[in-house]
Amino acid sequence: QVQLVESGGGSVQAGGSLRLSCAASGIIFSGNTMGWYRQAAGKQRELVAHISNGGSTNYPDSVKGRFTISRDNAENTVYLQMNSLKPEDTAVYYCNALGLFGAGRYNWGQGTQVTVSS
Q1: What is the mean pLDDT of residues 83-95?
Q2: Which of the four pLDDT bands, split at 50, 70 and 90, describes residue 105?
Q3: How far apart are CA 56 and CA 50, in angstroms?
Q4: Is the dihedral of CA 69, 24, 101, 103 positive or negative?
Q5: Within 13 Å and on the Cβ side, how many CA atoms surround 63?
Q6: Contact by Cβ (8 Å): 63, 49
Q7: Which residues, listed in sequence order, are joined to residue 35 by a DSSP beta bridge?
Q8: Is the separation of the CB atoms in 22 and 38 below 8 Å?
């Protein structure tokens, strides 16, 4: 049974930082490209960072230079360091393995709420 458990969210002021963690079980973690997604209220879920099993990373322009994704294959955990947070980063953040066209491959976890106030 696949489980994705996100943690580390919270409320911060603009310019602040948070570090999110995602523990995965029930998957061959090291064989998957892992990603962090977010969904703001009333908007579609979007991919904000992903990391290959070899450690190559990719970010959209909206977070490039501010977010850093990393992974620990021994711990089946993926992280997202978020710096210089902006109010528009407010969303529920999820992790997942990347499937076709960047969609999540497995059932979604509960996510972790990030709220950035101005």
Answers
A1: 98
A2: very high
A3: 8
A4: negative
A5: 25
A6: yes
A7: 50, 96
A8: no
Residues 6+ apart with CB under 8 A from 107: 2, 4
Cβ neighbours for 34, distance < 8 A, ≥ 6 positions apart: 22, 24, 50, 51, 69, 71, 78, 95, 96, 97, 98
| Predicted pLDDT at 97 | 96
pLDDT of residue 24: 96
Strand boundaries in 52-97, DSSP class E: 57-58, 67-72, 77-82, 91-97
**pLDDT for 37:** 98
- The DSSP letter of residue 27 is S
10 pLDDT band, cuts 50/70/90, is: very high
Number of alpha helices (DSSP H) and beta strands (DSSP E) in the chain: 0, 10
